[in-house]
């Protein structure tokens, strides 16, 4: 999946105007043949000239949003590609701010759709939301909170209307760092929209989140997009009715509809197989293939906007205005943005198989080093909304009695996702050992979690280890680093936890080859299991990506399993 997404992202990155060129940072609006390509035509036999169309603000902001999301997703798999995506996203944002009214004209529709968009305020909102979720920076937070879309009700999303994509990110991605009241309000707007879709479904013979007037070009993509909103409402609230609405929408697309036809090729007893496509064109040429399994037809369109539909669908009821014919481009087209929402919805259906389980207590970081005589914070939240208020207790379950963290927390259906801080304390003692303890976090109606705390004893001798900290790549407000830990002793280390404190304002966003967490300036990195054993003379390396301002300060000291590395 990541390889396929990267193929698309590489295309988008190549559509950005290079540095040093006029309109640098902007994205070209589109690329297609100079004339409409004949049907059928195999790609290698296409004789039409390909043309690149001038940049637009909308395309540039779409690149900014996609690049920012790319940076989050790929950071733990390919730090260099993640950094490249973020750099492109930042340059696109800056270019769009400098060129806010470069709009694609409706007249540019020869050889390909115009995709005109006279209002790009929603694209600015979406791009700012994604950049905020990735970087946490105030300039993007200000752009989000000052946007008129931030307070508006949740509306439908499509290629020309992207505000709700931003709302979903802001409501569900912890890195967005909005005030709790803002997050609660956005989640409320999403659940209100989901309730509207459920109401629409309940008033029809077939459960579909479209009104009778909603059967337009690409109506099936509206069904899948509206189902995504219901699925997000389920993720936010855990309420079963939203999950049911999303799955019933998928049932409609897979054949429980007025035509008794699955709109997804290869799925169902009867399914679309002659979608409008240049070389998935078996209907026109028996030597060419049908569309592959998973191809998603556009669906009923009461407008009858092509010659085949006008001929074959006269007098059709809106939900039946569809014909599986390669020539009916207004009802049987395929499009990548339609298939994307179908993939999202199918993944949701595959993963959310039953009634919601009790929420799970979540603790970050999962391991913390506490200085002797001092304290260190951990954050506690829930994985999903509880049906009612729940009480969560934090208590030591085993280990060194010098370590303590007794607390009682209350989470409500509204604030379950807001982390509450708990202080872990280490008593001052005279021994030279670094004790550790395990703490249990849970309560009635909440699945428990555990975290570990290790005392950094100020009387402890240096451990037999060395640490090398290397900055691999740095840009204006971010960097990636590699940390290498070497066992210089004579005994094998089985399971390791490395801790340090940043002197500057570095904030880690992602890590790889270790479980890396940060609380304040304190960083804790734990082995991932497969790399937990360090033989004498052996070493292990892990990396992370972080944001910063000013200078990148190198940590001064490191603690391995609670003892100071020499």
List the helices and strands and how they pair.
Layout: H1 2-14, E1 27-33, E2 50-56, H2 57-74, H3 79-98, H4 121-135, H5 138-146, H6 163-172, H7 180-202, H8 219-237, H9 240-253, H10 307-312, H11 329-332, H12 336-351, E3 361-364, E4 367-371, E5 375-382, E6 390-399, E7 403-404, E8 407-411, E9 420-426, E10 436-443, E11 446-456, E12 465-475, E13 478-487, E14 493-494, E15 497-501, E16 507-512, E17 515-519, E18 522-526, E19 533-534, E20 539-547, E21 559-560, E22 563-564
Helix pairs in contact: 1-2, 2-3, 2-4, 3-4, 4-5, 4-6, 6-7, 7-8, 8-9, 8-12
Your description of this structure?
The chain is of the alpha+beta class. The chain has helices spanning 2-14, 57-74, 79-98, 121-135, 138-146, 163-172, 180-202, 219-237, 240-253, 307-312, 329-332, 336-351; strands at 27-33, 50-56, 361-364, 367-371, 375-382, 390-399, 403-404, 407-411, 420-426, 436-443, 446-456, 465-475, 478-487, 493-494, 497-501, 507-512, 515-519, 522-526, 533-534, 539-547, 559-560, 563-564. The strands form 6 sheets. It has a 5-stranded mixed beta sheet with strand order 4-11-10-6-8, with no helix packed on it. The chain has a 5-stranded antiparallel beta sheet with strand order 17-18-15-21-22, with no helix packed on it. Helix 4 (121-135) packs antiparallel against helix 5 (138-146). The mean pLDDT is 92.
